[in-house]
Structure formats: C-alpha cells, structure tokens
Amino acid sequence: MKKITKKWRTEKAREIIDRNVIGVHFCEYDLEEFSEVCQVEIDGAVRMINPQFYSDPRHLHTLIDGEWDARSWRKFITALTPEQEAKRVMRNAVWSDLKDFREAMEPSECAICETEENLTTDHVAPPFEDIALDFFSCYGVPKVVGHSDKSIVVNIFEDGQLEGKWIHFHAERAVYQILCRSCNARKGKRW
After folding, report:
1. Number of H helices, E strands in the chain
2. How far apart are CA 134 and CA 170, in angstroms?
3. Which residues of 68-106 are buried (b: 16+ CB within 10 A; e: fewer)?
4. What are phi and psi of 48, to 5 degrees?
5. What is the rounded CA–CA span in Å between residue 149 and residue 86?
6. pLDDT tens digits for 32-80?
7. Residue 46 forms beta bridges with which residues?
8. Straight-line distance from the first to the last Cα atom of the chain, in angstroms, rounded to the nearest whole number
9. Pairing mode, if any, of strands 119-123 and 176-180?
C-alpha cells in the first residue's frame, strides 16, 4: 500500500488539474478525486487564467459551501503555521519597497556574479527572517485574514495599523542588494 504523503497529494492534485482544460468545469470523477486528495469537500472546480500571474498553469476557482471563489488548492494540502502565513503576508506588505529599490538600481548587475539577467532584490543584513522574528518579539504574530476579489486570493493583516507598524519597522532595518535568481537561491538564509 502506497504511503499518502503531502508530496504525493500535491503531485496527484497537479495531475488532476493538468488533465482539465481552462474554463471547463471538472467532471464528477475528477472533482471527487480532487476533493479526496485535498481533504476538503469541493462541490465544483474550474481551471482558470490567474489574473495576477499569467504563467500560473494551475489557478483554480472552487465551489465550497455554495460559494465560487479563487482558492489556493496548495493550502488545502499543506496548511501553513500562523507564523509562516504571517511572514508570507509580511513579505507581500513590503514587496513594493523591494520593487522600488530594484527599479532605482537600473541598470544593475548581481552583487555576486555580476550578471545582468534575472535580477532580484535581496536582504543583505539582517535577513528578512530576522526582521520578521524581531517584529514578532515586539508585537506578537500578526493575525491574518483571507481576502478575495473573486479572481485572486490573498491574505492580509487583520489590523491595518499593525501593517503600517510592520512596514515602518521593516524599512528601518532592511538593507538591500541586487542578486540574480541563481545567486539568491544559493545564498539562502545563510548571509
């Protein structure tokens, strides 16, 4: 008997999504199998174009409890801890600062290998993780709530004032550099 792991569930969910056509509702068999894999009672599913990330081939709208909405099927399979979800929301809250830094550095090159392709903004020191943990120490783990405009699903700070404190807290501590995707991936959280 095959052990059912998160990895297996993820691969199976991808297989089910990939065999369905964009804009066409899942057939009954696929819907039943998808519900079992995700461990959620899903009454309808349709693969859609992701308006935020056009390259996302597995964006879904699902019908749960009588409501169609864009939902993350990955979160059905691999739920994040409150700390992980808060960090994800915190990254999104400061994303425009990183983007502004990257654009202000044009033209630019990777600080490690000097390539000019696939450039990203990276935290030099302290790393994002350390800034987030310091914020948790001062303010606790922020509560996040789901927000959807029917085409995308995002989580946001429950408390808008706390989000403002986070953005200010992060801006006072963050030091950025430009790295290519490869060097950024190799660097990880070490530096």
Report:
1. 7, 7
2. 10
3. ebbbbbbebbeeeeeeebbbebbeebbeeebeebbeeee
4. -135, 165
5. 20
6. 999 999 888 899 999 998 887 778 889 999 998 888 888 889 888 887 7
7. 25, 61
8. 43
9. antiparallel
